[in-house]
Amino acid sequence: MLHVRRSFMVLCDRCSVLVFYTAACFALIHSCRGQSEVIGPLQPVVALIGDDIILPCNLDPVMDAFDMAVEWARSDLDPRFVLVWRDGVDLESKKHPSYTRRTSLFTDELKNGNISLKISKVKLSDEGTYKCFVPELNKHTTVQLVVGAASSPAAEINSTISSRVVLQCESAGWYPEPELLWLDGEGNLLSAGPTETLRGPDDLYTVSSRVTVEKRHSNNITCRVQQRNTNQSRETHIHVPDDFFIIISPSSNPTSNPNIAIVTVIIVAVVLILIVAVFFLWKRRCDKFMSRVRTD
């Protein structure tokens, strides 16, 4: 009887140990699951107005996120949610009105821990900081979205001044505010007047500038508009025909040729002498006429 009791006690001890290790394993598994991090990009994401863009967000180590809740939000909005995923459903009613039917997850990739956000037809108002949050893990990351706009410039010959030509360049529909540069045929920066900048009611910028070029700058000039923050650049090229450059050579300048200058002085002197002679002849005739009148 005592032997049976001891055997039973040993069996109970073993069962207790088994239960303990089983519980420990489950706790360890749960602990490992809770250690997954929500990872986003280190650099801002840049998008142009009208583009479709992806804001990256992933679970690391990889775990199935299909049955988890996923929230994308912007703290500067009310309501703040850009997308809410719960119980395997995209809750459209939770979104801020400006994102209705424009945001989505890659549902086929959720099992791989990919909880990236896709924004369709990006607007200027979409620019901001987005929070990717997984409530079950109590982990989040942020993604900065920079929105830009760009368009090709147009350049034309504005006017000619002596041996110089004035060019004008304009480009509309930029964001953020860009800079406008003039380059000669060798890529050298040209000195131009101040850039005129206008901001429209749609918050987009229009820039324009004029530059005066000479024949020495070559006939091919480039107008470049660029925005460094969005890494956008547009340019146009303009060819100035030789006919537009009125070259005044030294040989064609009367004051620079001694012979021509002498001839010019002689002609002017002769003309003046003739004028004086005519005047005196006219005066003598007038005097003779007056004398006859008095005699009569």
Describe this structure in words.
The structure is a single chain. It is rod-shaped, with a radius of gyration of 43 Å. Among the domains are: 34-148, Immunoglobulins (Immunoglobulin-like, Sandwich); 154-244, Immunoglobulin-like (Sandwich), CATH 2.60.40.10. It contains two helices and 18 strands. It has a six-stranded mixed beta sheet with strand order 2-11-10-5-6-7, with no helix packed on it. Strands 12-13-16-15 form a four-stranded antiparallel beta sheet, with no helix packed on it. A three-stranded antiparallel beta sheet has the order 3-9-8, with no helix packed on it. Mean pLDDT is 85; it is low at 1-5, 8-12, 17-33 and 248-256. The protein has helices spanning 2-34, 258-295, and strands at residues 37-39, 45-48, 53-55, 58-60, 70-73, 81-86, 89-90, 103-105, 117-119, 128-134, 139-148, 154-161, 164-174, 179-183, 196-199, 205-214, 220-227, 232-239. With 296 residues, the protein is of the alpha+beta class. Keywords: Disulfide bond, Glycoprotein, Immunoglobulin domain, Membrane, Signal, Transmembrane, Transmembrane helix.
